[in-house]
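Q: Can I see a sequence and its folded structure?
A: Here is a first one.
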Amino acid sequence: MRRENNSGSIFRYIAHCLLLLVCYLLEVTPNLFPTFFGTLPNLIMIVVVCIAMFEKDLAGAIFGLAGGLLLDVTSIQLPGFNAIILLIIGCAVGLIVSNLLKNTLSSALLLCGGAALIYNIIYWLAFYVFRGVEHAMYYFVRYMIIEVLYTIILLIPIYLIMRKILKSAKA
């Protein structure tokens, strides 16, 4: 009985790794994923939030770190920025679902929307405002708010697919 539970856990973690890699490739490969008003969703964040909701804080932190490192590999910005932010987001979401909220689609929308908004505010401050980029507010409203909305919309199918796969894996 213990061995079946362990093999189910291994299957889930392998599935999480594959989903993280697929979403990473979709996110960083030009013209592979459709843009919405010139923006792409943060697919890695969606996956990290969903993993944290289903697997809790430690797995959320680990997959947040892994997803952030993947994004940092192709980023020309501050090294480690995405890894640190997504690690914190993954851990925080896992703790919130463990202690405060139930794992439902509405809580996933709330947590992912909040995480995407916080991520984009920190990104905007670090790479636009503090660097003195002209028209920083324009970039925030024109691109980052739209990215948050696009991320929230795409959370719905990813969350539902993950929930279905994980329920069938536990059965």
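Q: Show me another, different protein.
A: A second, unrelated one:
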Amino acid sequence: MGNLYFKLDSEHTFSFSTIFINDTSDEVSEFSGKDNDLGEIFSTRNTFRTNSLWVNQLRTQHDFASYSKLITTLGYSQNIGHEPDRTQNSFIVRNDNAGQKTYTFSSTSTGGSAGDNHRFFSELEETELSGRLEYTHSFLEQNESYSLSTTAGWQFRKKSRAFRVRQIDLI
């Protein structure tokens, strides 16, 4: 995180702010239950995710004489999310003749579906550009009892998003 502030003189100021946040998570999940067609099943999923956020803002203020003011703001942000390699493995659980549990890899040949076992990859990239322009003109000097002014402005925002995903089913 960072902030910079620059005052050129009493009428012109510039400020810049930035922040970067990164988050990762690594999770192993195990599931067991009953399937109407397969019987008892066991599944494990390994998931690793990363998310990064970077936000920047530039703001300027210009005071012209005592009756007009111009404020400009420009912002840029980027958000990136990755799921680089999630794996899922599913097994059919059976009891053998000795009463021991045996685990068979679930596949289309054992009655399972193609998506029971897979590798999954995803990536989200989001970028946003924003801007603001504000002009204020005062018609009367400001005092404690009254003031008269008008403000006009413009705002802009553009966001782009790209999401890519790929899944490889292990049959």
